[in-house]
Amino acid sequence: MEPSLLIADASTLLNFLKVRRFDLVQGLGYKVRVVDAVYAEAESEREQLEALINEEALCVITLEGEVLTGTVARLLSLGLGQGEAFSFAAAIEFEGAIAIDDRRAIKRAQTLASRIRIITSPDIVIAGIHANRITIAEADALKEEWAEKYRFRLRFSSFSTQIVEQK
């Protein structure tokens, strides 16, 4: 069975690109896509994005058509940014999950996209811990780097408090 699609919004995409741990996103087993609006937002990591595109680890998609235009317009009217609106529209259209960290955007978009699977940066790190791709100590170091260098703060002290035993 082919893996499902994961549409990466700029917030989550940049979190992992900036710390050079896109491997954690890849380890989820999804085909990772970004909409062209998010690609444009991620200019600071263009070289790394191009490398991932060349490796076919990531693809850029362009949304077209009246239905998508209508969905994007409705999402924009809810107060989502352009990248967020296009990302949610792509997730709706292609029945994929969305990787996004903006809680406000998630709450607003769920009025139109209640069945879309939301995956956050902490979810990706926790999946990596469970798959032994990253240790808790390394995960906590990422958490600190995100907070100190990139203003992305998580509301828990350590990933060890977020790990639930798999049964």
Features:
167 residues; alpha/beta; Rossmann fold; 5-stranded parallel β-sheet; 9 helices; 5 strands; 51% helix; globular
Structural notes for this entry:
The protein has 167 residues and is of the alpha/beta class. It has two domains: 116 residues, 5'-nuclease (Rossmann fold); 40 residues. It is 51% helix and 10% strand. The protein has a five-stranded parallel β-sheet. Helix 7 links the parallel strand 4 and strand 5.
Low-confidence stretches: none
What is the name of the CATH topology of the largest domain? Rossmann fold
N/C terminus separation: 24 Å
| Coarse morphology | globular
Helix content: 40-55%
Q: Structural class, please?
A: alpha/beta
H/E element order: EHHEHHEHHEHEHH
The assigned CATH architecture of the largest domain is 3-Layer(aba) Sandwich
Task: Look at the structure and name the CATH superfamily of the largest domain.
Answer: 5'-nuclease
> What is the CA-atom radius of gyration, in angstroms?
16 Å
Query: Could you describe the largest sheet, including whether it forms a barrel?
Result: 5 strands, parallel
Measured by DSSP, the beta-strand proportion falls in: 5-15%
Number of strands: 5
Biggest sheet strand order reads 3-2-1-4-5
Number of helices: 9
